[in-house]
Amino acid sequence: MKKRILAYGRLNDEQLAQLGQDVEVQTFPGLASADDPAFRAALPHAHGLIGAGLAITPELLDAAPRLEAIATISVGYDNYPVEALTRRGILLCNTPDVLTETTADTGFLLIMAAARRALELADLVKRGDWNAGIGPEHFGSDVHGKTLGLIGFGRIGAAVARRGALGFGMRVLYSNASPKPELERELGAERREMDRLLAESDFVCVTVPLTPETEHLIGEREFALMKPSAIFVNIARGKVVNEAALIEALEMGRIRAAGLDVFEQEPLSPESPLPHMTNVVALPHIGSATHETRTAMAQRAVDNLILALKGERPIDLVNDVALRGG
Question: Does the global pTM surpass 0.85?
Answer without folding.
Answer: yes
